[in-house]
Amino acid sequence: GLRATSQMYQGLLPNPHKPNQTTTGSNALKSHYNKGKCSILVRWDIHDPVMMFNYTYKDADVLVRESFFRLMNDQYKNETGCTTIKKCPGSYYTSFTCFAGYKFHITMDNTQVNGYVSEKLFNGALGGGIPVYFGALDLDRYNINPESIVDCNVDPQIIQHLRSFYPRDITKGPGRYYPRPFSFSGMAIPGKPTNAELIQWADGILHPFFLQKQSCFPRLQCLDQNDEAYIKVLRQPFLTKPDIMTGEYPLRGVSFAYDVMMNNTIKRER
Asked: In 3D, which of 147, 116, 151 has the Cα closest to residue 132?
């Protein structure tokens, strides 16, 4: 239950989705992470961002997750890159069960706002690989160990730049208003980009940032190529203190998540 889940997050109990403590070497890691380089759980078609904006009130921040997914597949095009996961059985709070077997998990939130951390990052911590995170800049507030993840937060000035081309219209009032017009140049139909136009615009802004020496993609590459460094991060506790294991999220899912993991382990052992 909740106590055991908290202990797992703190590294006091083993995670059955991670390699055991004796696992070393490239072959052993490849055997364990046999599904691919990374996973990403999606609701909308990642290749059709226009559809997502047509039916949701999301801000341009959401393009960060999709842009990083494309960068991963571009950079690892000669290997098994990232896999999209749709319709994972169960609820959002137990979707980590579909992450098992992937080396990295793209667990990026929809927006970069301090004080908002969704279930995505917590699922990544249970999934067995290393979470790649974008979202709140104040993770230390939640006792989340930065050494246990790949922090892919984007310079806030770049986020504001993205948002400036897809602003909220405050004259529409507090109700939902979508789709909103984009204002970047190069669209065949002003305000209404095609998927290709939207992807080219977003990637043109975000990929150069991701590829900077001190940014997240070079760090991910380093971990991928250095087994010792990867294992070191994997063995880091996700939480430094159990305080976050109170409130709405654990009541709705985390304690149940641990029960699901243990049940799956028992089934595999039978």
From this structure: 151
Q: Give the torsion sign (CA, 113, 129, 52, 74).
A: positive
State how far the alpha carbon of 243 is from the alpha carbons of 2, 140, 190, 262, in Å: 12, 12, 49, 23
Specify the pLDDT at position 91: 79
Half-sphere exposure of 216 (CA within 13 A, CB side): 27
Tokens standing for 243? Answer: 């305080």
Look at the block and give the residue holding tokens 């160990």.
Answer: 145
Q: Is the pLDDT of residue 247 over 70?
A: no
What is the rounded end-to-end Cα distance, in angstroms, of the chain?
22
Write the DSSP string, 32-52: HS-SEEEEEE-SS-TT-HHHH
Task: Show Cβ contacts of residue 11 under 8 Å, excluding neighbours closer than 6 positions.
Answer: 235, 236, 237, 238
Mean pLDDT for the stretch of residues 22-36:
82
Reported as a single tens digit per residue, the pLDDT across 51-86 is 999 888 889 999 999 999 999 999 987 677 789 998
State the average pLDDT over residues 111-137.
92
Instruction: Give the 3-state DSSP-derived string for 51-116, with helices as H, strands as E and coil as C.
Output: HHHHHCCCCHHHHHHHHHHHHHHHHCCCCCCEEEECCCCCCHHHHHHHCCCEEEEECCCCCCCCCC
Contact 88, 107 (CB under 8 A): no
